[in-house]
Design a protein that fits this description.
With 245 residues, the protein is an alpha/beta fold. The protein is built from eight helices and ten strands. α6 links the parallel β5 and β6. The radius of gyration is 16 Å and the shape is globular.
Length: 245
């Protein structure tokens, strides 16, 4: 049994280097919700050293709110938003000598696309322009996965160690107090259920079937490094290898 282990990095947090040593894929912030060229460059250099799979992590242009404010862009502006960020990451990857493998939207862009099939398809179409070997990572069972399949690109079904789920299989909004899992034992239990048994228990106790291709720990959470360390140790103890493919 194996699982890809990813984290959202290059966002200017202090534990990036330590987390990079624990994961198999890194979602590289494209500079609009946090970070900048130095953070991107340093993350890619370390990622190359650890032989990690590289994903672009584009967002709305929203540094003030860490990319977590909903925006309604028309198709043309969405294309421009993504092209701007994809161009930056692709060029940085070429500079470092590393390959871009997938795209995972960030924050509000991610959450909106999980429930809006038209938005998800427009994102998938732009990802497809990067090349047939570039995949789209999105929440398991969400519109992002459906859109990738409809457009004909590879999809990566993502699950979360440090977030609670709604009865519909979505992530509980960060505006709610119970959105984040801060107890390590609860996070570990959720991880094992998702990977070994393909389900997650919602905030109201509902059992939801999911597909777990990749497991995420947010790099900006208070216990990001501790969670990543404990998850890696638990996976090893359960004979679950951490691999990106």
């Amino acid at each position: 049994m194996r699982i890809d282990f990813n984290s959202d990095l290059a966002e200017g947090m202090q534990n990036d280097d330590e987390i990079l040593a624990l994961i198999s894929s890194v979602n590289v912030c494209c500079g609009l919700h946090a970070g900048g060229y130095k953070e991107i460059y340093n993350t890619l250099i370390k990622a190359k050293e650890y032989k990690l799979r590289i994903g672009a992590h584009p967002s709305f242009n929203d540094r003030a709110n860490f990319g977590r404010t909903n925006e309604n862009l028309n198709k043309e502006l969405l294309q421009a938003l993504l092209a701007y960020q994809f161009g930056a990451i692709k060029q940085m990857c070429e500079l470092v000598g590393i390959k871009l493998s997938y795209v995972k939207p960030h924050g509000a862009l991610y959450n909106m696309a999980c429930v809006d099939l038209d938005l998800a398809k427009n994102i998938a179409i732009e990802v497809a322009k990067l090349g047939k070997d570039i995949a789209l990572m999105g929440l398991s069972n969400s519109c992002l996965i459906s859109a990738a399949n409809d457009v004909g690109i590879n999809s990566i079904s993502e699950v979360f160690a440090d977030r609670r789920y709604t009865d519909d299989g979505l992530l509980v909004s960060r505006t709610k107090e119970n959105a984040l899992i801060e107890n390590e034992d609860e996070a570990i239990n959720q991880v094992l259920n998702m990977i070994k048994h393909s389900y997650v228990i919602s905030e109201n106790g509902k059992k939801i079937n999911i597909k777990a291709d990749s497991l995420c720990v947010h790099g900006d959470s208070k216990k990001a490094l501790l969670f990543a360390q404990k998850i890696k140790k638990t996976l090893e103890e359960n004979n679950i290898s951490i691999r990106s493919n």
